[in-house]
Amino acid sequence: MLFYNLKGIYHCLVPTPRKLKHKIKILESMQDTKLHRIKERLQYYYNLKKEDFNPKPQTNLALKNMLKNHGSRYCYDLFSLLRYFDFKNLKLEFVSGDINSTLPTPAICKSRPIGSDNNILLKLDSARHFKFLKKTQENNPYHTKSDILFFRGGCYQAHRKDFMRKFFDHPLIDAGHVGSLKDLELKKWFKGKASLKTHLKHKFILSLEGNDVATNLKWIMSSNSVAIAPKMKFETWFMEGKLIENIHYLKIKDDYSDLLERLEFIRENPSLASFIIHNANEYTKEFQDQEMEEILGILVLRKYFYLTDQIQVTPLEVELFS
Fold first, then answer.
1. Alpha-carbon gap, residue 152 to 100, rounded angstroms
2. In sequence order, what DSSP letters do the residues of 70-132 get, joined into one string?
3. What is the distance between the alpha carbons of residues 290 and 58, in angstroms, rounded to a whole number?
4. Distance CA 230, CA 249 (A)
5. For residue 278, how many C-alpha atoms fall within 13 Å in the half-sphere facing its CB?
6. pLDDT value for 70
7. Quick one: pLDDT at residue 11?
8. Is the pLDDT score of 138 beyond 90?
9. pLDDT tens-place string over residues 83-98
10. 16 has a pLDDT exceeding 90
């Protein structure tokens, strides 16, 4: 975390707009298949036209004000991309925090209800949300793990409380609340934090959305465990809206009424579990290509500034943005 903070401070304080040409050259040297994928993802993150930006953005990008209004984690990620721009005269609408509704006008943010175009997605709060397992981390083979469904998380939302009321004491489920003990139920459910190593001892890990997306979904999908979840309602840079039930995760009903049935089904079908784990692992690989991720982030901002008539772009970018 110290390195993350130091790197973030450096990006905020040391802009390097001269390096943008190098990034554009990398883009121009890419094969057509990669460029096609970049265009797909750009359109997924927002499919807006110039006329959609009315009124034009009014907020300047003064670092002091951005830090004051949005906090360091969001600003570190934003300025890691803005450093490639001469942004003193650029303006951008930016909303931080857990966004679970459609914004009234276009703005850069972390999350949105699936398919809400006004919410322009950027990879934000990445230190918390974009964790993937490294090869050096303990990730035991599926067949060696416990059959228990495992869950740890803050249980403040109604749907999480509903889950805990139904299954806290079930012998096939190890669930626990993490966080504030402000009421009797939370005290009853409290088990404290569990390490990643402890999570990875289980074949099945529950992924429940909170205020917006589930924080644990990305690293579960890079592991040898199966993510079990209701159908996603929110999405981030990870494009949760593209995940396919029973292909990338095992789907359960929103009210958990089929949870035990689905749990028994996946326990008795290791071949399906292996299939889901393989597909989930493959899905996460794209988001671990750091060069591609950075170029895509730059292009999300380039497209924004282009559509709001603040910069000129290359002919290739015009094609990617169309």
1. 22
2. H-HHHHHHHHHHHTTS-GGG-B--B--S---S--SS-EEES-EETT-TTEEE---SHHHH---
3. 31
4. 9
5. 6
6. 86
7. 63
8. no
9. 999 988 899 999 999 9
10. no
Question: What does the block give as tokens for 294?
Answer: 């950075």
Residues 83, 101: Cα–Cα separation, whole Å: 29
Q: Which amino acid type is present at position 281?
A: N
Q: How far is it, in rounded angstroms, from Cα 1 to Cα 310?
A: 35
Cα 206 to Cα 224: distance, rounded to the nearest angstrom: 14
CB 53 within 8 A of CB 307: yes
Task: Enter the DSSP assignment of 266.
Answer: H
Could you give the residue ranges of the DSSP H alpha helices within the chain? 2-13, 20-28, 32-45, 63-70, 72-82, 126-129, 158-167, 184-189, 196-199, 217-221, 259-267, 270-285, 290-307, 315-321
Cα separation of 36 and 201, whole Å? 39
Q: Are 139 and 152 a contacting pair, CB within 8 Å? A: no
Give the pLDDT confidence score for residue 209 in this predicted structure. Answer: 98
289-to-34, 79, 248, 286, 294 alpha-carbon distances in Å: 12, 19, 19, 6, 9
Answer positive or negative: Cα dihedral of 139, 154, 5, 14.
Answer: positive
Is residue 81 within 8 Å of residue 294, measured between CB atoms? Answer: yes
Give the three-class secondary structure for 46: coil
